[in-house]
Amino acid sequence: MMKKMGGKVKVGLVLMGILLVEMVGNSTGATRHNYGDALSKSIVFFEGQRSGKLPPSQRMTWRKDSGLRDGFQKSIGESQIGIKHIDLVGGYYDAGDNIKFNFPMAFTTTMLAWSVADFKPFMGTELPHALEAIQWATDYFLKCTRMPGVVFAQVGEGFADHNCWERPEDMDTPRNPFAVSKKYPGSEVSAEMAAALAASSIVLRSSNRTYAARLLSRAKTVFEFANTYQGSYNDSLGHWVCSFYCSYSGYQDELIWAATWLYRATKLPYYSNYVLNNIHKLNGGNFAEFGWDTKHAGIYVLVSKLGFAKHLQPNPFITNAENFVCSVLPESPTTKSVSYSPGGLLFKAGGSNMQHTTAISFLLLVYGRYASSLKKTIQCGNVVVKPPRLAQVAKRQVDYILGDNPLSMSYMVGYGKKYPQRIHHRGSSLPSTDAHPNKLECQGGTSYFFSSNPNPNVLVGAVVGGPDINDKYPDSRADFPHSEPATYINAPLVGLLAFYKAH
């Protein structure tokens, strides 16, 4: 962390030194990246995570149909009324396992939609593929929310699944659905699903107005359910969700996040008033947090951009958005919410660090473009930051992911000459059904897990959890905090890559 220094001369020298170090770091072994190719691959990745009946357009051809009976086992969490035989086929596997966790899946979908909503002009021929990736999720969410007063939160049992190293095409672990309801609420998962449906309705209007209207109508209904019957799914489904995607930040952030997206989709004062009347419920200390669990920084940036709180003086959304920016920039003298590795990777404590790198970089780019449109600077203590600096910091992170790092390794599978070979991913690490038609039982894939051989199937576009704080990456399946890809890592990266492809 940089100590605060008084005086314009000292600040200028410190800033010049940081920028010089970054320029030198970027020029040493730096590569001119093909952002268009990386964008294409980042979207193809989602096809490798699909569950359900795969379409003829499927490009990740080593993947086959899976989870075709999802929803036909007795549900848990809402088992008191014995829901059974409901079609929950479709959606995405979140990472290297075979469970459909709807909380992170909904956040992934919201971020894919935000990527398109803000960067659509730069997506070019990848736009149809991005919209297809979004609709693959929303088709599933419409199924999950079709029963009034019930929202399905998960399909499959995490503990049973994590005990197996098994292809999704061979799954024989329990596929019970898990639901929340009026009596057993789950506001965070329900509200995030409402946000995903609302955000997706915005970007799908131009291609299918009727379908988009259906998404928006369902988003309103699900939001009202989440808001009226408030409670955490930790309490109703904690045994099944809390070892995997427990909600640590509460559910007020998801309710406000969903209302913000509903305002963007409808422009109705009801939703902007909801945000303004409830923003005090957020924990102010989380202004720099953003991801599948915590939405604070995303709310501040999005509301600032939408501008419905302009009359507030001082404006808490702009204040906290800029507090977020200042907590991330390397040259800022304010308290940091992140660290940087010696090679320049933005880092937060915990596993799967690239989820933070891509999500935070996305917000920097969005806020930087907003500030640039207003020709405003950002004051970080005694350092004045111009908007282009935010795009520069975000680009540095994207370039690190694509190979500008001490190992000269791309952390996107299939991009560049050197990338992870032994990622923590069941389908990728096991022979495809084309190569090995016979079923692999639950423990049948164990030898492949421990093998030192590269994965036989390339999960193109997958971005893994990434190196450690010292830029080291062992490329081991067993080291899942670093070697496992996840949909919510890729989703913000789609928007970033679209922008840098055009700039």
Could you please describe the fold and organization of this structure?
Helix 3 (102-119) runs parallel beside helix 6 (187-204) and helix 9 runs antiparallel to helix 10 (269-278). The chain has 18 helices and 7 strands. It is globular, with a radius of gyration of 22 Å. With 503 residues, the chain is mainly α. The strands form 3 sheets. It has a 3-stranded antiparallel beta sheet. The protein has a domain at 50-250: Glycosyltransferase (Alpha/alpha barrel). A hairpin with a 5-residue loop joins strand 4 and strand 5 (346-347).
Number of distinct helices: 18
> Termini, distance in Å?
31 Å
Kindly provide the name of the CATH class of the domain at 50-250.
Mainly Alpha
Apparent shape: globular
Please give the CATH architecture of the domain at 50-250.
Alpha/alpha barrel
Percent of residues in helices: 40-55%
Largest sheet: 3 strands, antiparallel
Would you tell me the overall average pLDDT? 92
Measured by DSSP, the beta-strand proportion falls in under 5%
What structural class do helix, strand and pairing data support? mainly alpha
Q: Kindly report the spatial arrangement of strands forming the biggest sheet.
A: 1-2-3
Low-confidence stretches: 1-29
Active site: 424, 475, 484
Pfam families: Glyco_hydro_9
GO molecular function: cellulase activity
InterPro entries: 6-hairpin_glycosidase_sf, 6hp_glycosidase-like_sf, Glyco_hydro_9, Glyco_hydro_9_Asp/Glu_AS, Glyco_hydro_9_His_AS
Main features:
polysaccharide degradation; 18 helices; mainly alpha; 46% helix; cellulase activity; 503 residues; disordered N terminus; 6hp_glycosidase-like_sf; Glycosyltransferase; Endoglucanase
